[in-house]
Amino acid sequence: MKTSFIASACLLALVLTLVAQSPPPAQNPPGAPGTSPGAQAPTNPAAVNPAAPLQSPATNVPQGQQPAVPGTSVPVTLSPAPGAVTSPAAATAISPSPAASPTPEQPTGFLAGNWLIDKFHKGGPVMWPILIVSIIALTVVIERCFWWIGRWFRRDPKRVEKVFTAIEEGDTTEASRLSRGSRDPVLRMMWNGLNHQHASLQGALQVAAGIEIKRAGRFLVVMDTLVTLAPLLGLLGTITGLIRSFSFLGNEELAVQAVTGGIAEALIATACGLGIAIFALIPFNFFTSRVSNLEFELQTAATNLEVMLEAQHKEHRGVEIEHGTPASATRSSI
């Protein structure tokens, strides 16, 4: 059980980190296609044309006008320097570029783009018990799969036939030797019956068969509970999400966003609960059918063993009666 739990936790972590990882958001290129490196040049006119010196407004006075008196405001008109030609790269640098517009910061970290964890947080607080139920269901399914696979490898039908053949021949000692130390449930039950045939054959077979059926049906009650519990938890998440949605209806500013978030929480919880129930229902029915088949095999083998041993006892009693001396012959006649 501990090994299965560790394997289930590792498998769930692998699913959360790899399978649910969404593709990263597309990043804007450093520059628009077709722009030259000169587009990133500074917009200072002196940097565009170093040969054009900067003139102050006080010295750049047209002919026929008096220079401005200090302390008075003079409208200044900047004209391009003579001989200075604005290049297309400079014009591109002056105009705002859409690539240079600030973008909102994207969440960083290991779980930034994990779609499954994002939905888990949007599902509300009910998602935590749903997560625990899913881990338990996955652990039980993995443990039962390993057990039934091992039981399939432990089957030994040829040895069972040899045991029945030895009993038909009347060699119960050989039949007990063949069934001793076997890992097949049928052979273990037959060995217990053969060892206790003189005390209570039927009782020994019933006890051994009950032990084997209990081993085969282990954790089926847990799976049955999970199949019923998971949809109920999803329904609880639906109710809490709807309550959260209707609690924001009085606020007109946040009503739309809050109502949609509550409905999303309700739907996510319901979907997760139903998914866990569907996931656990199919293995539960399969394991239940396998337990029924094993019970039928044990019952059939126990009945055959009782019939064959009873026939052997009757045959031995008949042989003793035939070879025995009648009681009246032993009396002396006086």
Radius of gyration: 44 Å
The backbone outline, from C-alpha atoms, is rod-shaped
Distance between the termini: 80 Å
Segments where pLDDT lies below 50 for 5+ residues?
Answer: 22-62, 71-112, 325-334
Please describe the biggest sheet, giving its number of strands, its sense, and whether it closes into a barrel: none
Total strands: 0
Helix and strand pattern: HHHHHHHHHHH
Which percent range fits the helix content?
Answer: 55-70%
How would you describe what is shown here?
By secondary structure, the chain is mainly alpha-helical. It is 63% helix and 0% strand. The radius of gyration is 44 Å and the shape is rod-shaped. The longest helix has 69 residues, at 255-323. It has eleven helices and no strands. The chain has a domain at 121-155 and 217-323. The two termini are 80 Å apart. The chain has helices at 2-19, 45-48, 88-94, 115-122, 127-154, 157-168, 172-179, 185-195, 197-216, 220-246, 255-323.
Which descriptors would you attach to this protein?
334 residues; 63% helix; disordered C terminus; mainly alpha; 11 helices
Task: Summarize the structure in short.
This protein has helices spanning 2-19, 45-48, 88-94, 115-122, 127-154, 157-168, 172-179, 185-195, 197-216, 220-246, 255-323.
Layout of SSEs?
Elements (H helix, E strand, L loop, with lengths): L1 H18 L25 H4 L39 H7 L20 H8 L4 H28 L2 H12 L3 H8 L5 H11 L1 H20 L3 H27 L8 H69 L11
Helix pairs in contact: 1-5, 5-10, 5-11, 6-7, 7-8, 8-9, 8-11, 9-11, 10-11
